[in-house]
Design a protein that fits this description.
Residues 1-28 form the signal peptide. The chain has helices at residues 2-20, 34-48, 77-85, 187-210; strands at 62-73, 97-108, 111-124, 127-140, 145-152, 156-168, 171-183. With 214 residues, it is of the alpha+beta class. Strands 1-7-6-5-4-3-2 form a seven-stranded antiparallel β-sheet, with helices on both faces.
Length: 214
């Protein structure tokens, strides 16, 4: 299974490199500055409108795939929600994620909004490719859930809703509802790798929370 997922990741990354070769993606030794990432975020927001959860139109060459994953964490729900919803706590939980750059953080109508870019450094054929995932997170503390919309090359959009449910005073169920939009030729890869990445992060967060690291 792990070998299969690594193969899918390599194929997806190869496709991304082919589609983005004209732009010369940044290497790890020349990281983009925070203002540059903020400008990229705004361009993605305006151009791809990744905040709009509208299914691709038939015949558009793009498809949608959905899945959900759940995990039980042995800790109180409010603590789990606070630790899990803090994107900075995801650093170190996934081997590729190296940096989170927050562009804007504000509250409105009972929700907290965060515009950010997650920077991943991915080993590929002896070099490091930097992949920027631009995102908006909306945290509803009262409702014990948050939503995140993201965009990354090659034009892969995700819509996520993460719900926290108290099972007992010391046990919490976390369920992630995941939606992926991508080109028809990439949708299976996007789904498989996206779900695998979220499962790995879930497991790492569970361990960190239960160990008292978070």
């Amino acid at each position: 299974m792990k070998k299969h997922l690594r193969l899918l990741a390599t194929q997806l990354l190869a496709a991304a490199l082919v589609l983005t070769a004209f732009s010369g993606p940044a290497r790890a030794e020349t990281p983009e500055s925070d203002p540059q990432l903020a400008a990229e975020w705004q361009t993605a927001w305006d151009t791809y409108k990744f905040y709009k959860n509208t299914p691709p139109l038939p015949g558009s060459g793009r498809s949608r795939a959905k899945d959900s994953i759940s995990i039980t964490i042995n800790a109180p729900v409010k603590h789990v929600f606070s630790a899990y919803s803090n994107i900075n706590n995801h650093l170190g939980m996934h081997s590729f994620l190296k940096r989170v750059v927050t562009h804007k953080d504000w509250s409105q109508a009972g929700k907290r909004y965060i515009n950010f870019t997650a920077v991943e450094e991915i080993p590929y054929e002896g070099s490091i490719v930097v992949s920027n995932t631009h995102a908006q997170q909306r945290i509803d503390k009262a409702g014990l859930y948050y939503e995140t919309d993201t965009w990354s090359l090659p034009n892969v959009v995700t819509h996520q809703k993460i719900v926290f449910k108290k099972l007992t005073p010391g046990k919490t169920q976390v369920t992630e509802y995941l939606t992926f939009d991508a080109d028809d030729t990439l949708i299976d890869f996007a789904l498989a790798n996206g779900v695998a990445s979220h499962e790995a992060t879930q497991a790492a967060l569970k361990q960190a929370i239960e160990n008292g690291d978070l």
